[in-house]
Amino acid sequence: MMNMPFAVGLALSLVVALVAKGVGLDRDRAFYPTVLIVVGSYYVLFAAMGGSLDALITESILMAAFVVPAVLGFKGSQWILVAGLIGHGVVDAIHGHVIDNAGVPQWWPAFCFAYDVGAGCWVAWFKIAAAPRLAETRPLARLAAMARQ
Q1: Which conformational region is residue 89 in: left (phi greater than 0), alpha (psi within -120 to 50 degrees), or beta?
Q2: In terms of CB atoms within 10 Å, which of 9, 15, 17, 102 comes out highest?
């Protein structure tokens, strides 16, 4: 059986994606890059809560590693953003084994793993789902859009 943090993270990633799609928040290329920066910042918050300067420094460096794909995904290909979101999920899966951060709630890595991978998959799905519509309506527009992504 799926554990609760994992199930909630996955469900929440879908709810956020559907709300963003439904009201048009995801039309702005800044939406999911901002999500990636925010999810990358939580471990810094947890380090501050845990009171460890070493963890704070380590988590800040790790956060910077996810700001880069957020910016590159915003400025260029959104596939970089998809990789960044899923990559952060992978980091969640191994985080506790490589970084000692006493402020991280026990349930957080499973929740964040599911949320991040879910969000990355939803971004990819929406991009793939949009591609046939662009191809049907304007093949040259599709090529131009893919080149910008």
Answers
A1: alpha
A2: 9
- For residue 116, CA distances in Å to 25, 107, 133 come to 18, 14, 26
Q: Where are the domains of the chain?
A: 4-148
Contact 43, 66 (CB under 8 A): no
> For 62-109, how does the pLDDT look when each residue is reduced to its tens digit (9 = 90+)?
999 999 999 999 999 889 999 999 999 999 999 999 999 999 999 999
Q: Is the dihedral of CA 83, 86, 90, 91 positive or negative?
A: positive
Residue 69, both tokens = 């794909």
CA–CA separation, 63 and 112 (whole Å): 14
